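queue> holo job accepted (pyridoxal-5'-phosphate)
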Amino acid sequence: MLKQEIINNFVSPNGTNRSEVDTLVRQFSAQLFDFLTNSVETSPLPEFHNVDSAFFQIPVAELSIQEIKDKLEVIYKSSMNAANPRYLGHMDSIPSIYSILGDYIASALNNNMLSLEMSPLLTQLENNLMSQFANLFGLPSGSGGVMLSGGTLANLQALVVARNNKLKIKDGNVYSLLQQPVVFTSDVAHVSVVKSCMLMGIGSSNVVKVKSNQNAQMCVDDLILKIDEQIKLGNIPFAIVATAGTTITGSIDPLNEIANIAKRFNLWFHVDAIYGGALIFSVEHKNLLNGIELADSISFNPQKWLYVAKTCSMVLFRDFSGMVDNFRITAPYMKDQEHFINLGEITVQGSKYAEVLKLWLSLLGLGISGYQQLILHCYVLRDVFVDKAACRKYLELATNPDTNVICFRIMNSDADQCDLLNEQLQSYLLRQCGFFVSMPKFKGQNWLRVVLINPFITDEIIDELFTKIDWFVQNSN
Ligand SMILES: Cc1ncc(COP(=O)(O)O)c(C=O)c1O
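queue> job finished
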């Protein structure tokens, strides 16, 4: 017979420990909300400090609730704090409350999205929502997709399908090819394209980097040049990856033109819309995605601009059944299904979390119009930010921002001095002013970057940031 303390680690199916479990959950929930509702008081990005290894020690016997809460208190205080509206550095949104609940419920249900038999309705939900998203992106009927844990996996699956489709090697292997396959993407595309090619046996060095223009968008003339070059070298181009919302500057490639080039050379056209895909919900800026409806595949992360808790990603295919033909591996322990394909057979994951629940609840809680307003709010903030930067002669913007991702820096004619000065500014903003802006390398130099995504960012907060920057510039020499 198990001891009650052990049993109380689980919810009894006949409710015998309901009040104990309820009390436990309430205590942890209260601690969590104490933190979340005061997160403006905590640094947006706590400094790394080495915690004594005893803190991480696996205990021999169970700890008390208080001891566990004490440990969690340390975790809260040391966590990246994107809830603070002065956390501006990365594409990390705060999760909508419904997406937090979706995560909580999905964990409690603990369904396995591997197969229809184990997750009958949730599989249908994922299948149905993915078709709706494909339609929102303008893909035709017959399109659809699957959900994955993060954008890197979404890009990987898209490129695997592209490779198998164009090179006809689903049941073969890359080594049987007489020529080297190559993929094209811009020199500012996300590293997951290179990572995918490394994993797929294409080789990371066979991702051909196309030049980007002054707005960090792919140069189509250079794309054509590079495709021609690769053909002359005897290599086999098979895919182009365009980006709708680059990681560093939020730039959107000229999708229509790239789609035409892909068609002309018979290449797979994938759009990494991991960030910018959220614009499907924007009335004012959806046109920036024009051409995405011509894509063979699209990857998109609701965990970013749709405010869904991490991880939550999807990959959509123009021809869903074509994707299945080029990807599906059946497993003997999954029952054959008549109406749906087991998701575990058609995604890079096997056992699969019901990420769909938090996405769906978030969509139910906000609706299309809620998302329209959130995205519009971000664009209003972008305009306020850009205007303030433009009236300061000592600042420059890296690009004319397409989205709410803005890269800027203090100008200096000496490149090393410029890097140093901006590094010092970033540190001053974090250590002394409670603002986190990130500092990516862009075209070889340090830039400061803000992602104006938190719904609690106000004009006043942006004003305060610029006042701090002004002070730094006046007092540094
Ligand atoms: C444009 C782009 N593509 C792909 C990714 C990879 O997504 P993930 O970090 O979810 O794997 C990112 C991440 O920021 C991204 O910005």
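queue> Residues 91, 150-152, 155, 190, 192, 243, 245-247, 272, 274-275, 301, 313 surround pyridoxal-5'-phosphate (CB under 6 Å).
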